[in-house]
Amino acid sequence: MALVELLTSPLGLGLSIGLTLVIIYFVFFTGNNDEPPTNESDEIVHSNRTGITRKEVAEHNSMDDLWVIIDNKVYDLTKFAPSHPGGDVIARNAGGDATAGFYGIQHPERAFVEIEDMIVGTLKEEEHAKFFTPEEISKHNTEKDCWIVIATRVYNVTPFLKSHPGGVSAIMKYAGGKQDATKAFLDNPSHPFPDAKSDLYPLFIGYVSKDGTNPFSENKKKAAVEKQKKLAVK
């Protein structure tokens, strides 16, 4: 009788409820988890995407988040940037087209192979870089059709003209490449990075070329690397 009285008493009911909750906890919440544990620190692995836009690349424009475009391919150099032999000069093209700089004599042939481990994907085809003669560039010199040249790169700034904080006239003096705008763009304190990059880099359309052909396609360094890749496949 004492046991029955205990179980039916408030204390007994409390103990029964507590024991039931403990059993439920162990049955439903401490069983084996079939899903493998996740590691939030795992590195992001790019899947060699296609159709990437220059606008998207331009958003990755700092040493902490550094994408560049080389030969119409997009690379994530964020983890490589701190060990770059040239220091933070690598950030100059962060978020933009770095093809010309990458083909500089300072980069050994092996760099063309090593960089493939950092690929994000390729640009959408309609945004691939083109090559323009000075004569062609000079034709685009009006407010309705305005191209400028900065560091051998050609930008169609027509859609940006009216929203330029410095006014339309500040840009028009460089329209059609009549003057090179490199110094004006880089030295102007009103062009803070990365904001200026975010505005300018999506407007990139190509490079200046004396005869309108790709000056990088016949590059001896590129030819050597392509040969090395073919030998590696064999």
TrEMBL record:
<dbReference type="GO" id="GO:0020037">
    <property type="term" value="F:heme binding"/>
</dbReference>
<dbReference type="InterPro" id="IPR050668">
    <property type="entry name" value="Cytochrome_b5"/>
</dbReference>
<dbReference type="Pfam" id="PF00173">
    <property type="entry name" value="Cyt-b5"/>
</dbReference>
<dbReference type="InterPro" id="IPR036400">
    <property type="entry name" value="Cyt_B5-like_heme/steroid_sf"/>
</dbReference>
<dbReference type="InterPro" id="IPR001199">
    <property type="entry name" value="Cyt_B5-like_heme/steroid-bd"/>
</dbReference>
<feature type="domain" description="Cytochrome b5 heme-binding">
    <location>
        <begin position="129"/>
        <end position="209"/>
    </location>
</feature>
<keyword id="KW-0349">Heme</keyword>
<keyword id="KW-0479">Metal-binding</keyword>
<protein>
    <recommendedName>
        <fullName>Cytochrome b5 heme-binding domain-containing protein</fullName>
    </recommendedName>
</protein>
<feature type="domain" description="Cytochrome b5 heme-binding">
    <location>
        <begin position="49"/>
        <end position="124"/>
    </location>
</feature>
<keyword id="KW-0408">Iron</keyword>
<comment type="similarity">
    <text>Belongs to the cytochrome b5 family.</text>
</comment>
<feature type="transmembrane region" description="Helical">
    <location>
        <begin position="6"/>
        <end position="28"/>
    </location>
</feature>
<dbReference type="GO" id="GO:0016020">
    <property type="term" value="C:membrane"/>
</dbReference>
<keyword id="KW-1133">Transmembrane helix</keyword>
<dbReference type="InterPro" id="IPR018506">
    <property type="entry name" value="Cyt_B5_heme-BS"/>
</dbReference>
<keyword id="KW-0472">Membrane</keyword>
<keyword id="KW-0812">Transmembrane</keyword>
<dbReference type="GO" id="GO:0046872">
    <property type="term" value="F:metal ion binding"/>
</dbReference>
